[in-house]
Amino acid sequence: MKKNGRKLSFAGLGQLTIPLIAIALLVVFNLIRDPGFFSIGISHNNNGNAVLSGNIISIINGASELAVLAMGMTLVTAACGGQDISVGAAAAIAGSVFVKVLKAGASITAGTVILAFLCSCLVAMIFGMFNGTLVAVFRIQPMIATLILYTCGRSVAYWINGGATPTVSSPIVTGIGSFIPGIPIPTPVIIVAVTAILFKLLFRFTALGLFTQSVGINGSAARLNGINEKFIKLLSFVILGVCVSIAGCIGVSRLGLINHETLLIDIEMDTILAVAIGGNNLGGGKFKLSGSIIGAYVIQMLTITLYAMKVSSTDVKAYKAVVIILLVVIGSPVIKERFAGWAARLRGRSKKVSVKGAEE
Questions:
Q1: Distance between the two ends of the chain, CA-based, in angstroms?
Q2: What sign has the CA pseudo-torsion 344, 350, 356, 358?
Q3: How far apart are CA 287 and CA 76, in angstroms?
Q4: Residue 31 domain-assigned?
Q5: Is the pTM value of this prediction over 0.85?
Q6: Residue 156 is assigned to a structural domain of this protein
Q7: Cα separation of 199 and 258, whole Å?
């Protein structure tokens, strides 16, 4: 099929089939269960500012840290054929550095916040380089390599602030974690949009996307074509470090304090699942960033739905596991191949019927 001389490709849409179906099913289920589930209203926060409210706002706002981490994890997965399980611990370290710098000054100004973010970003990138070196240079499987930081990362975050959980009282920090006065959209949602745009521009004006996929599909062939395999893998971990810093700073700003034990706890598994639900190959290669972002919102929508159904917090993980297993199995290569085979046979039969009809 051609339109305006250009061949239309539906490959990208095909990769988004599973997350889009998951979103659609959750939307239909919630509309049947509660027709007003997705209603959006305007309320006033503690500062008297008019802000958007409702379940849909809670979903897109609550998934912000997960969506940012899923973008970075997608690159690591595509380039290295494995996942970083230390993103939660690394976010705790970045958040601790963020608070440490903020508390070091006499007052918290916009410049102090920017400096604190840059410092946390630098530290997270260094830890990302550490993980990336183990994977790219020493060829350790990503999940094993990142197990080191997963194990000790929260202890490092604990040492940074001397074991304390300092609070941060500042309108600027509060605005980062909630709402900027005069803007009814939650700030974390805006941060996710800006991050996604930056990734889009990065892929648009550089060959990073192509190089990442090439390395993930066949590293040896990529090297023969002049692509620095080690650099691409290392760079993917460094970019993930930036995403980790963003997520950690959002988490700290939401709470107004740093708690190394609870900040983004267990977000590693949700991040990996967001990438998987997004239709990305966990073995590396072809990827689609938008699929991972949608996958993050699928997980958050499922969580909000379960809480709306009065499911206890202790049972939410079990219900999420069942649903996510179904989504991942349906999106697995085996099931996709079978569906493709059935579709091909159906098309073949329909062609035979049409040919017979024409002959008669």
A1: 29
A2: negative
A3: 10
A4: no
A5: yes
A6: yes
A7: 28
pLDDT band (50, 70, 90) for residue 328: confident
Token reading at 260: 């190394």
pLDDT at 357: 58
Query: Do residues 69 and 267 make contact, with C-beta atoms less than 8 angstroms apart?
Result: yes
Of 214, 209, 238, 236, the residue nearest 226 (C-alpha): 214
Q: pLDDT digit string (tens) for 20-78?
A: 888 999 999 999 999 999 999 998 887 778 899 999 999 999 999 999 999 999 999 99
Task: Report if residue 246 sits inside a domain.
Answer: yes
Q: Where are the alpha helices (DSSP H) in 84-183?
A: 87-104, 110-136, 142-145, 147-160, 171-177
What integer pLDDT is reported at residue 351 of this predicted model?
65
Q: CB-based contacts of 338: which residues, under 8 Å, 6+ apart?
A: none
Domain residue limits at 190:
64-271
Q: Say if residue 343 is exposed, middle or buried (CB neighbours under 10 Å; 0-12, 13-18, 19+).
A: exposed
10 pLDDT more than 70: no
**How far is residue 288's CA from residue 291's CA, in Å, rounded to a whole number?**
5
The whole-angstrom distance between residue 127's C-alpha and the CA centroid of its chain comes to 19
Number of domains in the chain: 1
pLDDT of residue 87: 97
Q: What count of other Cβ atoms lies within 10 Å of the Cβ of residue 17?
A: 16
Strand pairing of 2-3 and 41-44? unpaired
Whole-number Å distance between alpha carbons of 19 and 15: 9
In this predicted structure, what is the pLDDT of residue 51? 92
> Per-residue pLDDT tens for 195-219?
999 999 999 999 999 999 999 999 9
Please report whether residue 128 resides in a domain: yes
